């Protein structure tokens, strides 16, 4: 019997992905919410199969990392009640969860998460390839299209927020 595909918006999954220790990860409570299970049950399943989760698949946050994440979100109550530091899972760890969590929902959610990771990787690669092509064209046609290339580079570079001055500005007399 095949259950209907569970659709979770890509944006919802993307919002759960963080960059920690040089890896893209998702926290245990976010995964549990996506899978529709309690965090403690997800962790129990992982601990029963701990040999499947080496440190490059899953790790426990350090206290400072956890505090930084809480500060990043500007909340203190969202994580309230936790007695233990959260586990975080890399893409490989999430793929391994599919062999530990056997529900139909877990399988469908895992497929969606893997597709989201792939999409993010493709976006990064595409942007890099596009930048390299533009740089080659710029070298070839620099004099003729200098202004166009300058605008394209501005579009490809990450936006820098304008710093606003605080206080009063005195006019010179």
Structure description:
This protein is extended. The protein has about 170 residues and is α+β, with helices and mostly antiparallel strands. About 55% of the residues lie in helices and about 10% in strands. The longest helix has about 35 residues, at about 105-140. It has a 4-stranded antiparallel sheet with strand order 1-2-4-3. The mean pLDDT is about 80. The chain is built from 7 helices and 4 strands. About 20% of the residues are buried. A hairpin with a 2-residue loop joins strand 1 (about 15-20) and strand 2 (about 25).
Radius of gyration: 22 Å
| CATH fold type of the largest domain | Mlu1-box Binding Protein, DNA-binding Domain
The residue ranges in which pLDDT falls below 50 over 5 or more consecutive positions are none
Kindly report how far apart the N and C termini lie.
Answer: 83 Å
Global structural class: alpha+beta
Helix content: 40-55%
Strand order of the largest sheet: 1-2-4-3
The SSE order reads: HEEHHEHEHHH
Number of domains: 2
Q: Biggest sheet, open or closed, and with what strands and sense?
A: 4 strands, antiparallel
Strand percent estimate: 5-15%
**What is the CATH class designation of the largest domain?**
Alpha Beta
**Using DSSP, what is the number of strands?**
4
Examine the secondary-structure arrangement and name the CATH architecture of the largest domain: Roll
The rough form would be described as extended
Instruction: Specify the number of helices.
Output: 7
Mean pLDDT: 78
């Amino acid at each position: 019997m095949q259950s209907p595909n569970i659709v979770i918006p890509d944006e919802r999954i993307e919002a759960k992905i963080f960059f920690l220790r040089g890896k893209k990860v998702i926290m245990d409570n976010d995964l549990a919410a996506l899978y529709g299970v309690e965090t403690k049950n997800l962790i129990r399943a992982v601990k029963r199969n701990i040999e499947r989760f080496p440190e490059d698949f899953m790790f426990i946050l350090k206290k400072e990392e956890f505090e930084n994440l809480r500060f990043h979100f500007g909340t203190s109550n969202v994580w309230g009640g936790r007695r233990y530091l959260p586990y975080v899972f890399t893409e490989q760890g999430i793929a391994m969860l599919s062999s530990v969590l056997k529900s139909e929902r877990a399988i469908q959610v895992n497929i969606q998460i893997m597709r989201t990771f792939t999409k993010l990787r493709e976006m990064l690669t595409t942007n890099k390839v596009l930048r390299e092509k533009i740089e080659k064209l710029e070298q070839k046609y620099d004099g003729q299209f200098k202004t166009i290339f300058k605008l394209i580079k501005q579009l490809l570079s990450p936006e820098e927020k304008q710093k606003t001055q605080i206080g009063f500005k005195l006019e010179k007399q």
